[in-house]
Amino acid sequence: MKTIIINGSPKGEGGNTHIFASHFIKGMGMSCEMRCIVKEDYRSLAEEIENFDSVVFIMPLYVHAMPGIVMKLLEHMKTLELGNRSMGFIIQSGFTEPAQSRFAKRYFEQVSNRLKYNYLGTVIKGGAAGTYLMPDNMNKKLFTALEELGSYYNKTGQFSEKVIGGFEKNYQMSKRAAMFQQFLNKTGLGNMFWNSMLKKHNAFDRRFDKPFSRTIKGS
What we know:
single chain; 219 residues; alpha/beta; Rossmann fold; 2 domains; five-stranded parallel sheet; 5 strands; globular
């Protein structure tokens, strides 16, 4: 099975998406081609994808939406004459709730069907914003799950429902959990990690700055 991994992050190899892709490939236990959309010509890459049996898109989610570079590539892909190839998606985001990715997930299933690819599914991992900042031992569970997903994919050509279900275990916060999160945020306990990073980079005192805001006359 000839697979191409598409890194859909605007950061290319410099962010969490590259880490996710690396561990998925490690689990596959075989070499495969990985390309960063941000470094490619959309039309050329869309044509090259047609030479592979399967394509796996891995990307961040920004405010309920996929990166524009991913949509642009998908819009350049042609509908297959024979639906014997597969397409899957892996989303990572800073949102705690995987439910934040539900609209993107619906779109990915629809676009797979429109392009006549077999839809492998969409893996959603929330709360992943600090992955690249944390030491590997704090990400051990995440990395193990991604490698299990890659291994299952290599053996079956499918995404593991077990891994997908594990990532979506807390699909949406309960009312009690949301209230507890609000309490942690108000007391500062929920932001301890991020506050430590701000202090490390001498930015803690400017954490409420709004550099892009401006006062509109007459408002």
